[in-house]
């Protein structure tokens, strides 16, 4: 296929202009490979005398320190795939001493969970519900999905996820039933007790505050169940989270088939494709408190949407953007990707709902990447049965994004976190998280520099945010985004060291 005209020049690209780059300070030479071998030898030598076993974390720390300096300072970024991904593998298997599921008849009672939010927020709630059921020795009733949030989706669990697979896969860990047995319901003299756990609760909260009520009432419902469990659990419980999220939660056959059909269509057109979760819907922009230059009309429209949330504070749009809290515009996302090295012949799948500003907002991105596709463009009439259900549409987007060679997030929302974590777990597939704070400065100064300098600066600010195994983590990162307890390093066969 012939290369299409390059739109980067039209939107501020092209070489020349901006003057020569200022001299860079001399780089320090990377550590010699001898460093790695010496460190491993010392660690092994110490272990012989202390009884210490070289853990996956030990190996990871040593190799990542050596590798990260070499990678970040000297090696060019392969925009399609990490060369270090083969060093790691998923490891969420049960440990030999992890307690098996308590039988339904012997459990402390039935736990009802009512999730909240959209598909991926619900997914996080379901994942943590299984862990809470294990902590309580309870029987989990298949979670109820939120029908009253912004998305107004009436789908039940079994409409989105394969419920029989969910129950079967988790049978060794937690007893799960589709509904409370009739005889139990008939024997209850009161309705199930309902309570709401604080966010990010420790396991002790559930054993001290929730368990006594569950044992007394036999049936207990926890409402608004999202992020109701801390990210900092012991390794066995983190691995249980991974077994739920990456294995037990499987989409229904109809959703899976639709998602794979779109993937196959993209693969027939190109061997590689990039998926972007634009997250530039009106509700997202309103919630963020950001402003994008649309004048009084934009301020009024987003201000009206913002009234849906009673507890949101007053925000300064300028301050939020300078702090990196605003999603990039579709145009800015496109410029970042072109600067990183993706050509205008790259095939692009865009996952999103209603884009604020519609086609006018998308036009610059489409001109930068003419091979632009959405699920509506690829599926046409096949998508009709899914159209009334926002969660099922989101599930289709989830599949196509998960299967992509490169996934680009545009905010730190739940889909971005869940997919980033899943892609790390499944082999560290390239996942790009924009450094919005530093990119904002570059976009403001875009006209002051030539394209080559702009591209170099974008590549520099994006190092550590490209889906590498040793990516930079936020100060308070979410386990669902960085499931480190479930990712192990492959030890070299000739350097296995134990006491």
Automatic annotation (TrEMBL):
Pfam family, one: O-FucT
Keywords: Carbohydrate metabolism, Fucose metabolism, Glycosyltransferase, Membrane, Transferase, Transmembrane, Transmembrane helix
Residue stretches of biased makeup (Gly residues): 11-20
InterPro entries: FucosylTrfase_pln, GDP-Fuc_O-FucTrfase
Transmembrane segments: 34-54
Sequence similarity: Belongs to the glycosyltransferase GT106 family.
PANTHER family, A to Z: O-FUCOSYLTRANSFERASE 16, O-FUCOSYLTRANSFERASE 29
Listed name of the protein: O-fucosyltransferase family protein
Region (Disordered): 1-28
GO molecular function: glycosyltransferase activity
Superkingdom in the source lineage: Eukaryota
Gene Ontology BP terms: fucose metabolic process
